[in-house]
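Service request form, structural biology core

Requester: graduate student, group of Dr. S.
Request type: structure prediction, single chain
Budget code: on file
Notes: please return the result as structure tokens.

Sequence provided:
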Amino acid sequence: MDVAEADFVTVVISKLDYARLNIKVEIHALGNSTVMLFPNDTSKELPFGELYTFTVDMPPTVLFGNSQYSFQTEGINLSSTHPVDVTFNTNSTNGYLTSPKDEPVDVYWFIIQGNAAIRVNGLGVGF
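Core staff response, request fulfilled:
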């Protein structure tokens, strides 16, 4: 999955609690001031032309899930037939919770400020 150039992109990786998700993220900085912002308030500056790669591994947090469950909000679209999701929200300023309160959902997100190409590849399995 790719996203064309954008000045501000929030990448939201989410899954239902019983699913397993392993994602490889590649970010190619296309501008001089590309910065990644992470949920723990840290950041990483990416010099022009740099290819930054990392992996997000989200194991199951419960053994069995609700087969009739669904959860939708900006950046998250999960259901029993779609237990894993990756969303690119361009020019969104909405913050995302690591785990929505009282919901069987696990979320990881990061923000890209500046000009970058983003590629996400992965494998998700709902048990």
